[in-house]
Write a structure and sequence with these properties.
- The complex is a heterotrimer of chains A (271), B (332) and C (358).
- Chain A is of the alpha/beta class and 271 residues long.
- Chain A folds into 2 domains: 1-95 and 186-271, 3-Layer(aba) Sandwich (Rossmann fold), CATH 3.40.50.300; 104-185, Rossmann fold (3-Layer(aba) Sandwich), CATH 3.40.50.300.
- Chain A has helices at residues 58-65, 88-93, 111-117, 127-132, 136-154, 170-183, 200-217, 228-234, 252-256, 259-266, and strands at residues 7-8, 14-15, 18-29, 32-43, 47-51, 73-78, 81-82, 96-98, 188-192, 220-224, 237-242, 245-250.
- In chain A, strand 1 (7-8) and strand 2 (14-15) form a beta hairpin.
- Chain A is globular and about 65 Å long.
- The two termini of chain A are 34 Å apart.
- Chain B has 332 residues and is an all-alpha fold.
- Chain B has a domain at 36-258.
- In chain B, 71% of the residues lie in helices and 0% in strands.
- The chains are: A alpha/beta (271), B mainly alpha (332), C mainly alpha (358).
- At the B-C interface, helix 3, helix 5, helix 11 and helix 13 of B face helix 6, helix 12 and helix 14 of C.
């Protein structure tokens, strides 16, 4: 399973070679070590989960990947190249999209506009064309609108297309945020607790969307989630973190039987 | 040392005194900002309004006299008595408390939870309203405010410093009023700090400043605290207004000092009382010295108009939280 | 009655992207344009032009400019007066240095110069936000006014320190100076307003507009979808300042003719334009017009009622004006943060269902 080649999963999906690799990442805030010497990789087309108790450093890890934090030590490799320190918007332009634990939508804009922002990096019309709304600007708007409408259909949010996001309930906001991330057609999609605060039914919907995205577009997904049941069902491989360290890495079955992981979750005293 | 040097020192000292007044206005800002997150642009106009009220009450003026005259064709102006200064001060404080209550009741209660910038713009509206209202109530002519603070240069300091600079130097000229202002400011700050630290309301105030909801959950009335804070700010405005008013008459330009207090806060940080004071002093000294050393000789003068803002701007770019403000941490 | 969108279906995204997707709105817009271009020039007189129409049109441009910065990109500026002054003085210097070039070109160039100055003063916005930035823009306001006051080169060393617009013509018709006919001044301003509104509308509904709004609503999330905050904020400052600069140039060259910087472009002007944007509606092009119209006509109406009708002294009316404007600002921020534009929208919603609201 761990070799660099292509494998086929039990349910027939293709998992490709390593697309992103974290090498010996260490992140400190002042004296606090949030992430300590962690390495793991993400392979193309897989669903990779990062789990761990509160304060384990999962969100910090995601923030390192998306460029909000620059680790003091370690390297991030993306598509076979070492990534220099980057600003979040540069990371986004490389094709890495994400959602946030506390929804980060543009509350003053409509659902449609929010999702359209996901495609901003693809819109290249010059200022002049935009000013007169002709040529490239108008064509681009329509092309991208078509792509966005497909995602709207896919996530079943047609009815709220023109509603300002501020008026939507929580569950729908989460879905719109996913739609915005998808609109970028990312090569890696990072999801920070996509099911936090949802009821069982909403969780099932969201799980289905995540699986469908992965299945239909072949999008690589890395997600953080608290609900163990969901994680074990969804993901191909799981990284387990505790107190900033990696304590387990492998398939859901391997992780489930890992003594360190069991200790972390059942609360064995740390020495 | 040459006389020039001592004139420079005099400019420095006078800047320090002007800085005390900036600090007084800035103090009012900090009080409200800490407790409610409102950046009160109207603080300067409050100072104007307070001073106007005090001056008019002392003169026994009839409120809204011009409006009444214009509407009913009457010719009233004043009651024909003079109110003793102390009573007038008490009455003015009463007016400022009433104002605080109304502002909280009618405006900011309905804006709880709005973005800071919305609150800020609301206070600009409040400043306009209060300016027009003050003029309607008391008239817009310049008033003198004499409540018995000694004025003019302090002879003692002048005589005892004259020897420093030889023949060309006649001693430091420092206005008595400025000295009184500095003393009053010191007492006021000490009083406020003591109030915030040791009184029950003060503790509640700090709790509210820290976390609105947590304060609510332990049974503190936000409404009460906010009225209290606006009242305190009104009181500080009264003191600042009296000092400025006694110095240069009660007139519209007084409200422009509010604008000067903004860069003071940029420097000192919005949440720090010591910051407001040190910031005020730095701006006061800085703009006077800059005008004396650079502005007047090389730039054609009047640099006091923008010096403070440009300093604040540079400061903001390199140290956005000010000298003493809490570090701004942004969480993802 | 005739305000209906039922049956007004769209079959393409192009049609859905129109500025006025509802047919009735579209026709009304054409009607307004026709009246403005074809009727008013023939009925205009001096009083109408100077008391209402010219200031309305010029302030509309300034308000559109500030609305782009504040309403769309979320960056509050109190330096509008200073930037208008940049436009005015640029126009003046250009007009006197190159008398043979068409004055309309000078006005546009003045806009570009102001855009550059605005972008420079927008640089702190990369580090600071909210009212910190608002106060930082005050530095621009005070510094620029002082600069135009003190550096004699800007007013060509004139003894009064004022700048005076020399007479310039467009197609042989004087549009600046003492011999300008009201209709000529009006048409020039109307031309600029029409183009400014179209450009602003196109920019704000497209890519750039979405970048601005993303920065406004949540800058961190904007970055994560690939918006470079540097270019987004600076472009907002530049585009906004361009419009403000054009407004300043017109205000000086066409409307006032002679300007003393502290009087015409002081801090009060910054607040006036900000109030137009708040009362009209943040983030709405139509709101910019509504706010400008409201605050331009308010003093005129107050004077009519207060001075001419009730016989009050003018200063009393001026005080009332402050009270009313201040109260309105607070009212709109509390009750309707989206301003007159939102009231208009709500009225239309109601009208759409009339006479059967249930």
């Amino acid at each position: 399973m761990q070799d660099a080649g292509t494998t086929i999963t039990a349910d027939g999906r293709t998992i490709g070679p390593v697309v992103m690799e974290m090498k010996n990442i260490t992140l400190r805030f002042g004296g606090v070590v949030a992430i300590q010497d962690i390495s793991f990789d993400i392979r193309e087309g897989e669903i990779r989960a990062i789990i761990g108790p509160n304060g384990a450093g999962k969100s910090s890890m995601l923030n390192v990947i998306s460029g909000f934090y620059v680790p003091q030590e370690g390297e991030v490799w993306f598509k076979g190249e070492k990534r220099p320190p980057m600003k979040p918007f540069e990371v986004a332009r490389q094709g890495i999209a994400r959602t946030f634990q506390n929804i980060a939508l543009f509350e003053g804009m409509t659902v449609l506009d929010n999702i359209m922002t996901g495609r901003l990096t693809r819109m290249k019309a010059g200022l002049l064309a935009q000013m007169i709304w002709k040529g490239r600007a108008e064509e681009e708007e329509i092309e991208n609108r078509e792509a966005v409408e497909k995602i709207i259909d896919f996530l079943e949010i047609q009815h709220i297309r023109k509603t300002p996001v501020g008026r939507l309930p929580y569950g729908l906001k989460k879905r719109v945020e996913l739609a915005r991330a998808l609109a970028a057609e990312p090569s890696i999609l990072l999801l920070d607790e996509p099911m936090a605060g949802m009821n069982v039914e909403e969780k099932e919907d969201m799980s289905r969307f995540i699986l469908d995205v992965n299945d239909e577009y072949g999008t690589t997904i890395a997600l953080i989630e608290h609900d163990m049941g969901v994680v074990m069902d969804l993901s191909d491989r799981v990284v387990v973190m505790d107190y900033g360290k990696k304590i387990g890495d492998g398939t859901p079955d391997e992780v489930r039987n890992n003594q360190a992981v069991i200790d972390a979750y059942l609360g064995v005293a740390h020495d | 040392m040459s006389a020039d040097f001592y004139y420079g020192v005099e400019v420095f000292l006078n800047g320090l005194m002007a800085g005390v007044l900036y600090a007084l206005v800035a103090l009012g800002f900090v009080l409200i900002y800490k407790a409610s997150g409102i950046f009160n642009y109207a603080q300067g106009v409050m100072a104007l309004f307070a001073a106007l009220t005090l001056a008019s009450i002392i003169e026994g003026q009839v409120p809204f006299a011009r409006l009444i005259n214009a509407t009913f064709g009457t010719e009233i102006h004043d009651f024909g008595w003079r109110v003793p200064v102390l009573l007038a001060i008490v009455l003015s404080i009463g007016v400022m408390v009433a104002f605080a209550w109304l502002v909280q009741r009618l405006v900011f209660r309905h804006l709880v939870g709005q973005a800071p910038i919305i609150l800020f713009m609301a206070t600009i509206g409040l400043a306009y309203f209060l300016e027009g209202f003050g003029d309607l109530m008391w008239g817009s002519e310049i008033k003198t405010l004499d409540i018995g603070i000694p004025q003019g240069g302090n002879r003692w300091i002048e005589e005892h410093s004259a020897f420093l600079g030889g023949d060309d130097f006649y001693g430091f000229f420092i206005d008595n009023l400025d000295i009184v202002a500095a003393l009053v400011a010191a007492v006021l700050v000490a009083g406020l700090v003591a109030f915030a630290q040791y009184s029950k309301q003060g503790r509640a105030m700090r709790a509210v400043a820290d976390d609105h909801q947590a304060a609510l959950s332990v049974g503190i009335s936000l409404d009460f605290i906010w009225v209290l804070v606006w009242s305190l700010a009104g009181f500080v405005a009264l003191v600042a207004g009296v000092m400025w008013g006694a110095k240069s008459g009660v007139q519209f330009s007084l409200s422009l000092i509010a604008l000067k207090a903004l860069p003071v806060l940029m420097l000192g940080g919005f949440t720090s009382i010591p910051g407001a004071i040190v910031g005020g002093l730095i701006i006061g000294v800085g703009e006077k010295l800059f005008e004396y050393l650079v502005g007047a000789p090389y730039l054609g003068g009047a640099t006091e108009n923008w010096f403070a803002y440009v300093v604040a701007l540079l400061f903001l770019v390199f140290r956005p939280q000010g000298l003493f403000g809490e570090k701004i941490i942004e969480r993802v | 009655m005739f305000y209906r969108e039922a049956g007004d279906f769209k079959t393409s995204y192009k049609a859905d992207n129109q500025t006025f997707p509802i047919r009735f709105d579209r026709y009304r817009f054409y009607a307004v344009l026709a009246v403005a271009w074809l009727v008013i020039p023939f009925v205009i007189n001096d009083y109408l032009a100077n008391a209402i129409l010219l200031p309305f049109l010029i302030y509309s441009i300034a308000a559109i400019g500030l609305n782009i910065l504040t309403g769309f990109a979320g960056q509050v500026s109190l330096g509008t007066g200073g930037f208008m002054a940049v436009g005015a003085y640029s126009a003046y210097k250009l007009m006197t240095a190159f008398p043979d070039v068409n004055v309309l070109i000078h006005v546009v160039l003045a806009g570009f110069i102001t855009a550059a100055v605005g972008a420079a003063f927008g640089l702190p916005s990369l580090r600071i936000k909210g009212f910190y930035l608002a106060v930082a823009t005050l530095a621009a306001q005070f510094f620029l006014v002082w600069l135009f006051n003190k550096v004699a080169w800007f007013y060509n060393y004139s003894a009064s320190g004022q700048i005076n617009a020399p007479e310039r013509t467009v197609l042989g018709v004087p549009v600046t100076g003492a011999n300008t006919a009201p209709w000529a001044a009006y048409l020039v301003c109307l031309g600029f307003v029409t183009v400014a509104a179209l450009i602003a509308r196109n920019l704000t509904r497209g890519t750039l507009g979405r970048k601005w709004m993303a920065i406004r609503d949540m800058d961190i999330a904007a970055e994560i979808i690939g918006v470079n905050p540097l270019t987004a904020k600076l472009s907002a400052f530049a585009v906004s300042s361009f419009f403000v600069g054009v407004a300043g140039a017109l205000f000086f060259a066409i409307y006032l003719g002679a300007v003393e910087v502290g009087e015409a472009f002081g801090i009060q002007k910054s607040f006036l334009v900000l109030f137009m944007v708040i009362i009209g509606g943040l983030g709405s092009i139509f709101g910019s017009f509504a706010g400008a119209a409201f605050l331009v006509t308010l003093p005129v109406v107050l004077k009519l009622v207060g001075v001419d009708l009730l016989g009050w002294p003018t200063d009393l009316v001026a005080h009332f004006q402050l009270v009313i404007i201040g109260a309105l600002i607070m009212f709109f921020l509390i009750a309707e943060p989206h301003g007159l534009a939102q009231l208009w929208r709500v009225a239309k919603e109601k009208l759409r269902l009339w006479p059967f609201p249930h």
